[in-house]
Amino acid sequence: MTENTGKGASRRQFLAGAAALGAGTVAASVAKAAGPDPLITEVQEWATGLGDGVDATPYGLPIHFESDVRRRNVGWLTADTISSINFTPIHALDGTITPAGCAFERHHSGAIELAKEDYRLMINGLVDTPLVFTYADLERFPRENHVYFCECAANTGMEWAGSQLNGAQFTHGMIHNMEYSGIPLRTLLEEAGLGAAGDLKDKWVYVEGADASSNGRSIPMEKALDDVLVAFKANGEALRKEHGYPVRLVVPGWEGNMWVKWLRRVEVMDQAVESREETSKYTDTLADGTSRKWTWVMDAKSVVTSPSPQMPIKHGPGPLVITGMAWSGRGAITGVDVSLDGGKNWQKARLGAPGAKNALTRFYLDIVWDGSEMLLQSRAHDETGYVQPTKKQLREVRGENSIYHNNCIQTWWVTADGKAENVEVS
Amino acid sequence: MTENTGKGASRRQFLAGAAALGAGTVAASVAKAAGPDPLITEVQEWATGLGDGVDATPYGLPIHFESDVRRRNVGWLTADTISSINFTPIHALDGTITPAGCAFERHHSGAIELAKEDYRLMINGLVDTPLVFTYADLERFPRENHVYFCECAANTGMEWAGSQLNGAQFTHGMIHNMEYSGIPLRTLLEEAGLGAAGDLKDKWVYVEGADASSNGRSIPMEKALDDVLVAFKANGEALRKEHGYPVRLVVPGWEGNMWVKWLRRVEVMDQAVESREETSKYTDTLADGTSRKWTWVMDAKSVVTSPSPQMPIKHGPGPLVITGMAWSGRGAITGVDVSLDGGKNWQKARLGAPGAKNALTRFYLDIVWDGSEMLLQSRAHDETGYVQPTKKQLREVRGENSIYHNNCIQTWWVTADGKAENVEVS
């Protein structure tokens, strides 16, 4: 009865658990079907009793079976939790949208609580009329919706020093991808009037948050007028406190540090401020001790999320879904390659949907695994023609002193028993 | 200092709260700026103290200020909460994605708790080899991601008897829109082999859930082989318990009752079962007492979500964002019209993004409100050329005995003080 006698090249023959039922075992007799599996031969309690009613809680949480899928504070990473990080559990997710409840967050002086009534946004500096907006004011401007990824510049930063963290959540989880609703920053700047700024070509905006860190960053006017959003919703609902409630900046394709939370001020300036956050931090020290500056854009990158160290293969040889995600701050992802042998040979992965600008793309490679060990890698291509580099290529250009902007190809060593480990290949 | 002296047709002149600052009030002096608003003239506690650290909770919830944005059980609607409904708070959402935590749910015998380890899916009936899949088996099949809306056939059903419920959440909130990840049902049917079914043209599948209601429904084979998904994730993460964890059926564009939760069995049959859920329920009684049957598809529909009874206008005349959502089970939304005068005159709304098949579309109409009362309506068009009907047109065809499939144009009467009410226009 449990014999897995598939026909031809059917996937069925590989599935250890997919039990073929005897002929004649049809609908009415399911509960009585012969076979060793009590879950199909016996009536289950959940098929006869009543479940829970609605509204047990005002806002739903994941079922307790999924309690391991959680944003996670790694105690050793930072001195305290006030200036620290939560990682998206990307190993356990599929599709592209990140639920807000487990979406990456990073605070520099803790997540503040700021009511809409207490919220003010100032636009000042080289504008015709400096303005202060209340939250209610902002709700009266035309708004847009876009799905964008937000990645910390330090995502994968530990990899500069070698393969350190064993899990995609920790190597690549400082990223989320949500549908943001907000007002183009351009609209608010034009409301204040940019005549006073003269030639906009060399102008900047300086943006800062209402928290104690203020996290001020300079953004070239060209970007500010292009696609930056003053956002108040993510995935349809109000921003979570830890994502900047009630208003954050969205800077598509650029490093997450610039997506200022609890946005309180935008100043039009004739030069960059060169704040702490863009000098001693968020610059990339090269081999010769000098630093790359204004490294705003997040280059094309990808990672296999399953199998991965937190998502081992739990079955023997046969059909295996390899999946991961790819993204680029320079435009849409056009393709992803997957290698099973550490980059010697590459196969074209299937994209879950055509790539969209500055948004995550899900990819799949459906293989028949022969049960031997693999050196799993993925390699992203974006619409500019850029190809995600190897760790070696990146080090040749950038040295090993960097913290930020590590977009190298990631390698998981998958052993014959299905376990996976973070390794480097030469 | 607080004079709102905008220039030309600037939106600024209308904004009661957008205070223009005096010239020379720039960056360094924000905290000391002259003006009556202590929120910009005084240093706030959140700008000097530390906020909360990360990982205060393993999975984030909305900030407490948003506690009114919640799925909601209306006690009077059903005799008990076991067979009842939670409504998406659509009035408070923007964009298109519905967060799982507040996404519409409906149970017929309560939400059951079913662990992945205990999950089994049987494919039987007219198949070459009846099969039983474990959850781990399903994870080994190629999967897809699609954003689809799920709407209860009874959504807006109370409107047949006149304008009864005062709030978009209650008239139109039995809908959600999530990114589903799953396996095409076609894949699993082909795995079992459809040779035994002979000519597939007149064949059906009967699908049922593992809960006590079983909620069995018949689906024509043509649809089953087209776009139906056996889904295990929504918005990237595992389905919530109340949405059918660990596996539910996704039947794009068709009534929510067919999206069987806790899916346990798919039987290939040579006729429809004519179960309770497709005879005494989920059919539409016409004026002459006969019933429309197999009314699976959700026709094009739309609703203004703000302003609406739960989202009154809280400001005077001037710029006003009118927004809502539109959807169709027959294909993509191609346009939405908005009327301010109960359908006499229509304006073309701006779509947040081009319509996608069987997914919600967000629309906006940005107006300068003159402060007079409005009879707000929206009217959806889909790619088949179908136009959302008035309530009168719908009643002429369908009578007033129906419960299900009310896709009429909704009217909100917005008074000069900004309050909104559910009304009928002749």
What does this protein look like?
Two copies of one chain form a homodimer. The first copy, chain A, is mainly beta. Chain A has helices at residues 38-41, 135-138, 168-172, 185-192, 221-224, 391-398, and strands at residues 19-20, 85-86, 105-106, 120-125, 131-134, 144-151, 175-184, 204-209, 217-220, 229-234, 237-238, 248-250, 263-269, 284-285, 291-292, 301-306, 318-327, 333-339, 347-348, 350-351, 361-369, 374-382, 411-414, 420-422. Chain A has three domains: 11-47, no CATH class; 85-292, Sulfite Oxidase, Chain A, domain 2 (Alpha-Beta Complex), CATH 3.90.420.10; 301-422, Immunoglobulin-like (Sandwich). In chain A, 8% of the residues lie in helices and 28% in strands. The first copy, chain A, has a five-stranded mixed sheet. In chain A, strands 6, 7, 10, 11 and 12 form a five-stranded antiparallel sheet that branches. The two termini of chain A are 49 Å apart. The model of chain A is unreliable at 1-10 and 22-34 (pLDDT under 50). Chains A and B meet through strand 1, strand 2, strand 4, strand 5 and strand 7 of A and strand 1, strand 2, strand 4, strand 5 and strand 7 of B. Strand 1 (19-20) of chain A pairs antiparallel with strand 5 (131-134) of chain B, so a sheet runs across the interface.
